[in-house]
Amino acid sequence: MTKSRLFSIITIACFVSILCIPLGIVLMIYYTSWKKKTKIILTLSLTAFYAALIAFVLFVRPSINSGGISLPFGSNSGYTAFDSGSGGSGSSKGGKSSGGKSKEPRLQDTERLPKNVKKSQGSGASKAIYPILFFLFMLFLIIWLNLRSKGKSNYENPYVDTNKYKLPLADNAKMPMVHFLRLELNENEKLNFATETNQKGNEGNFVVTNQRAVIFSVQENVEIPLEAITGISSATSTVMVIATTEKKYYVFMPENQMKYALAVLKWTAKK
After folding, report:
1. What is the dihedral of CA 14, 20, 24, 27, to 10 degrees?
2. Is the separation of the CB atoms in 28 and 15 below 8 Å?
């Protein structure tokens, strides 16, 4: 497992824990290879979510009816909910109020509390569902973006640290150390760039020196002198086209290596 993928897993775990979202944002910005646009969107969204969650926990309280609950019984009738409704005379009639059916309609359980009190019940839970749904949506977005870019930008060059190429390359730029032993160098020849090629069934390597561009593959090995190159371009995000007066050569490589291969080969060809 590569270091970038390991930090990606830790970052997603921090987001899932909710409490560690700030730590996850830091790891995402400095230690993952996610796209810059993705990092910006997730940083802004998760920061807003975390702030809203803290505000909800600290400042939102259940509504309290400080004025009391008004009962649905008349205040001037002279009796309470425990009286029969006819004062003292009701109690002297042979227990009709106790043994027989009460003349007063019995209050239903749903009428014991005012409507405004009933509506306030569960309001806290309904408010809490919105940040939870938002968080689940952001988690789905993170997973979807990483699955979409899987296998495209997580390639690590085994021959050179591409972070040492400062693009765009200046005229007096210095090339970093390239560790590629498959090519036998000529006198005063120096390696400027190397990467693996990934054409299915024809994998190999692509190398740029200060004298030539070399394509190693299963089918054949090609050496192209720099002075023979008439054009350098990219057909797609993973296919480079090197044109000469006689032929065009197509080099398949990982997407995140394309910008370095193009920049170094164009820079070297001008020398």
Report:
1. -110
2. no
pLDDT averages per 10-residue partition of the chain, 271 residues: 76 83 86 82 85 77 51 51 49 48 51 52 57 66 62 78 93 94 95 96 97 96 96 95 95 95 96 78
Q: Which residues pair with 231 in a beta bridge?
A: 243
Would you state the structure tokens that stand for residue 86, as one six-digit string?
A: 């006819």
Instruction: For residues 21 and 14, give the distance between their C-alpha atoms in angstroms, rounded to a whole number.
Output: 6
Q: How many CB atoms lie within 10 A of CB 47?
A: 13
Residues whose CB falls within 8 Å of the CB of residue 266, separated by 6 or more in sequence, listed in order:
232
Written as six digits, the tokens of 230 are: 């008439």
CA distances from 33 to 7, 36, 151, 152, 227 (A): 9, 9, 12, 11, 36
